[in-house]
Design brief:
The protein is an all-alpha fold. The protein is built from 26 helices and no strands.
Length: 522
C-alpha cells in the first residue's frame, strides 16, 4: 500500500464507533485519523496574518519603476494592484488612505501633494528605498537588482537615450537631488542648453507628461535649502548690482507682451548667463544669496517662456523652467515659482496635456494659499479652468472661472508678486472665451472674446492677436466664414507686429479653412 493510500484509508469500523474529538467530543469521521475534528484543528492553528503583501517582482516591473520615478502615485497604485493581484481595499489597508481617495487618485481626479501622505503611501506599500528617494519613517529594503528587468526593456531604454539625448538629459535633471549645488548646476546647464541651436531636436514637442508632473511634485515636496558662498574667492556681489539685474528682467517682461518672446529669447538667455556667473563665482552671504537666487529664478523662468514663445522645442523651455523652480526654492519665493508654473501650464496647454496644467497650477495654489495675493490666485484659477475645459469638464471649468472672477474684483493684495500685472476684465473674458471654445460653446465663446477684445489694452499685442484668432475659430464653427475672415485679418495684422510662435501657429491653422488669409500670412 502506498503512502497516499495509507493516509486516505478509513479507520476500521469497530474503532470508528468509539472515536470522538478529544476537545469538543463530536464523533470523528472514519476517514479522520487525527484526534481532533476539522473545526478544532483549524482553531488550534495560530491566527493567520491576513495583511496583504506586495510581491517583490512588482518592484522589478519597468512600468511600476517609471511611474515611481515620475511620482505618478495614481498609476503606481493601479499598477501595484494589477501586478500584485491585490484589491484596492488592500492598498487602502496598507497605506491608510481611504478607498474613495485611492479611486480618485488612480483616475487622476486627486493628487498626493503632502509629503507626509506620500511617505505613508510609500511605507505602506514597502516601496524599495532606492526607487523613490525621500526620507522614510521606517527601514525599507532596496529594490532587486537591475538584472531582474528584462534585457529587451533595458535595450529599448538604451535606444531611447541614444536617439533622444535631450530627453534623457531632461529626465536625469528631474531625478537629480534638490540641493544648493544642484540648483546652480541646473541653471548653468539650462542656459548652455538654450544656446545650442540643435538642443531639443528629435524630442517630441509634446514632451513627456510624467516628467513635467514629476518635477512639479518634486518642487512641492523638496526640503528647504539656501545658497550662500561667504568664503568664496570671487568678488562680493553688491545689492546695487542685483537691483540692476532685476530691472533688466522686468524690462524684458514689459517688452514681451508687445514684441513677443521671439524678439527676446536670445537676450534673455545671455542675461541669465550673467546671473548664473555671479552665483557660481561671486562671494555672498545667506541673505544676498537668497535674493540672488530669486533674481536667477525670475530670469530663468522668463527665459524659458521666451524660448517657448519663440518656437524652440519644449525641452529647451522646460530645462530653463525646471531650473527656475530650483532657484525659486532656494529663494523661498513661492510667488516666483507660481509664475514659472503658469508658464509650464501654458506649455502643457499648447502641447495638449491638460492634466499637466492642473498639476502645475494646483501646486502653485497650494504653496501660495496663505498669501494676500488675490491677483496671483485669480491667475492660477483661470489656468485651472483652462485645464478643466480642455478635459471637457464643463461644471468644474465654469465654477473655477467664477472663483477667479471673484478674486479679480478684490484688487491688488499686499503679497502680490511684483511681476504680476493685475488681471483686468479683458484678461478674464479672454480666458472665459478660450474655455467656452474648448467646451464647444462657440456662441458664448464669441461673446466673451468680443468683450476681451474691447477691454484689453492696445499694448497687449499678443493677447489681442490670440483673442482674434480664437474668435475666428469660433465663428468658423458657427458657420460664419465672413465673420471668421474679419477676425482672422485682425489677428494677422497683430501677428505681423510681434514674434510669437503661439500666435503664428493659431493663424496657420486658420489658413486651412480661410485660404484668403494665406497671402496675408505669407
Amino acid at each position: 500500500m502506498t503512502t497516499t493510500q495509507k493516509l486516505c484509508a478509513p479507520v476500521a469500523p469497530e474503532a470508528a464507533v468509539s472515536r470522538r474529538c478529544s476537545r469538543c467530543r463530536c464523533r470523528l469521521s472514519a476517514y479522520n485519523t487525527d484526534e481532533l475534528c476539522g473545526a478544532c484543528s483549524r482553531a488550534a492553528l495560530p491566527p493567520a496574518d491576513d495583511t496583504p503583501r506586495i510581491p517583490a517582482r512588482v518592484w522589478a516591473d519597468p512600468e511600476v519603476r517609471e511611474a515611481l520615478a515620475a511620482w505618478n502615485f495614481g498609476q503606481v497604485s493601479r499598477l501595484v494592484r494589477q501586478r500584485g493581484s491585490i484589491r484596492q481595499e488592500d492598498v487602502a489597508q496598507l497605506t491608510g488612505l481611504s478607498q474613495g481617495f485611492l479611486s480618485m487618485l488612480e483616475s487622476g481626479a486627486r493628487r498626493l501633494t503632502s509629503i507626509d501622505r506620500i511617505v505613508d503611501f510609500l511605507d505602506g506599500l514597502a516601496v524599495p528605498a532606492d526607487l523613490v528617494r525621500v526620507p522614510r519613517r521606517r527601514p525599507v529594503p532596496r529594490s532587486v537588482g537591475r538584472t531582474t528587468i528584462p534585457a529587451r526593456t533595458e535595450s529599448r531604454r538604451a535606444e531611447r537615450a541614444e536617439v533622444l539625448p535631450s530627453q534623457s538629459r531632461e529626465r536625469a535633471e528631474t531625478d537629480a537631488p534638490w540641493t544648493p549645488e544642484q540648483a546652480i548646476v541646473a541653471l548653468r546647464e539650462a542656459a548652455a542648453f538654450a544656446t545650442d541651436d540643435r538642443a531639443g531636436i528629435g524630442v517630441p514637442h509634446a514632451g513627456r507628461s510624467s516628467e513635467v508632473s514629476a518635477y512639479v511634485q518634486r518642487w512641492a515636496t523638496a526640503m528647504p535649502y539656501r545658497i550662500a558662498r561667504p568664503r568664496h574667492s570671487g568678488a562680493e556681489v553688491p545689492e546695487a548690482l542685483l537691483d540692476q539685474l532685476q530691472a533688466t528682467t522686468d524690462l524684458m517682461r514689459r517688452m514681451d507682451g508687445e514684441h513677443g518672446g521671439g524678439s527676446l529669447a536670445q537676450s534673455a538667455t545671455a542675461h541669465l548667463a550673467v546671473v548664473v556667473g555671479l552665483l557660481r563665482h561671486g562671494r555672498y552671504g545667506a541673505e544676498t544669496g537668497q535674493r540672488l537666487a530669486a533674481v536667477a529664478a525670475d530670469a530663468a523662468g522668463q527665459a524659458g517662456w521666451y524660448q517657448l514663445d519663440s518656437g524652440r522645442p519644449a525641452a529647451v523651455a522646460h530645462r530653463l523652467m525646471f531650473a527656475a523652480l530650483r532657484a525659486a526654492h532656494a529663494a523661498d519665493d513661492a510667488r516666483i515659482a507660481a509664475g514659472v508654473l503658469v508658464h509650464l501650464a501654458i506649455s502643457a496647454y499648447v502641447s495638449g496635456r491638460p492634466r499637466d496644467i492642473l498639476d502645475a497650477v494646483r501646486a502653485g495654489q497650494e504653496r501660495t494659499r496663505g498669501l494676500d495675493a488675490p491677483g496671483l490666485r485669480s491667475l492660477l484659477l483661470a489656468w485651472e479652468a483652462r485645464g478643466h475645459a480642455k478635459l471637457g469638464r464643463r461644471r468644474e471649468a465654469l465654477h473655477t472661472l467664477g472663483l477667479a472672477a471673484d478674486l479679480c474684483v478684490r484688487g491688488r493684495g499686499a503679497d502680490e508678486p511684483h511681476w504680476l500685472v493685475h488681471l483686468d476684465e479683458g484678461d478674464l473674458h479672454a480666458q472665459a472665451g478660450s474655455c467656452h471654445l474648448d467646451l464647444g460653446d462657440h456662441r458664448q465663446a464669441v461673446t466673451s472674446l468680443a468683450l476681451a477684445a474691447e477691454r484689453l489694452r492696445p499694448a497687449r499685442v499678443r493677447t489681442r492677436g490670440l483673442v482674434f484668432a480664437r474668435t475666428a475659430t469660433a465663428r468658423l464653427r458657427l458657420g460664419d466664414p465672413q465673420g471668421a475672415y474679419e477676425a482672422g485679418e485682425k489677428a494677422v495684422e497683430l501677428a505681423a507686429r510681434i514674434r510669437s510662435a503661439r500666435l503664428d501657429e493659431l493663424i496657420r491653422g486658420l489658413t486651412e479653412s480661410l485660404p484668403g488669409l494665406r497671402h496675408r500670412v505669407d
